[in-house]
Amino acid sequence: MFLLLMTKKRRLRIASYNINGINSRLAVLTRWLAEFQPDVACLQELKCTDEVFPREAIEAAGYSAIWHGQRSWNGVATLSRVGEPVETRRALPSDPKLEQSRYLEAAVCGILVGNMYAPNGNPRPGPKFDYKLEWMDRLHEHAAGLLGSGVPAVLIGDFNVIPSDRDVYKPERWLKDALFAPEARERYEQLVAQGWTDAIRHLHPDERIYTFWHYWRNSFQRDAGIRIDHALLSPSLAKKLKSAGVDRTPRGWEKTSDHAPIWVEVEA
């Protein structure tokens, strides 16, 4: 019996949620944590400084947390109920705009979790789009190093890229948008081609799956969305992938984010 207990494996649920303002949507977040119970939750768009991050509420929900905030914009946090997340990096190497909090990396349960909020890039063309592409190039370089290390890793969060026509309702309406730009899509494709597995698309190759719906024109009710939140798994972690998907439920709540959480389950 002792031997069986020692060798029994469990599933680890790692989720990502662009909360679109953590303090204004704290009730939504804590409700989701209680109902969905992710083991690790990566949050983006905190829109708060480090000093006003709601640490007490997060701890009351049963989670430890690390975070990197920014006034009014951006911001990322990693929550864990399976041990303290150990921070390893809080920006991409050589990021030209370190004042923007967009990347937070931590070790949790033997997995390196890269929590990211990539630049939107609009309007295109322009300096914001140039920065988006430059940031993605930095991500490409860093991701290659992670793969070279051989450590089990996941890059998860809001990539602000629509990878293909399957990932958007009416692609023709997004042709001028930075999220659907050929340059951004090509960089995402090149990133995956390094050896990363797009977990949701890998398990659901032909389905139309969305993670974001605008607030206007009943976009969510009509399912007129896009898929811009992704989870990329390193080869060693991809072998342990058991399931992945989108938790659409919170998107239907009142005063909620315009994103829905994504999640993967891996054998730990």
Would you list the SSEs in sequence order as H and E? HEHEHEEEEEHEHEHHEHEE
**Whole-number average pLDDT?**
95
What is the C-alpha radius of gyration, as a whole number of Å?
A: 18 Å
Kindly report the CATH topology. Deoxyribonuclease I, Chain A
How many structural units, i.e. domains?
A: 1
Distance between the termini: 20 Å
Which architecture does the CATH hierarchy give at level 2? 4-Layer Sandwich
Strand content: 15-25%
Helix proportion range: 25-40%
Cofactor: Mg(2+)
Protein name: Exodeoxyribonuclease III
Organism: Sphingomonas limnosediminicola
Keywords: Hydrolase, Magnesium, Metal-binding
Structure description:
The chain is α+β, with helices and mostly antiparallel strands. It has a single domain (12-267), classed as Endonuclease/exonuclease/phosphatase (Deoxyribonuclease I, Chain A). It has 8 helices and 12 strands. Strands 3-4-2-1-12-11 form a 6-stranded mixed β-sheet. Strand 6 (103-108) and strand 7 (111-117) form a beta hairpin. The radius of gyration is 18 Å and the shape is globular. It starts with a helix and ends with a strand. Residues 1-7 have low confidence and may be disordered. Its cofactor is Mg(2+). InterPro entries: AP_endonuc_1, Endo/exonu/phosph_ase_sf, Endo/exonuclease/phosphatase, ExoIII-like. Keywords: Hydrolase, Magnesium, Metal-binding. Belongs to the DNA repair enzymes AP/ExoA family. It holds the Pfam family Exo_endo_phos.
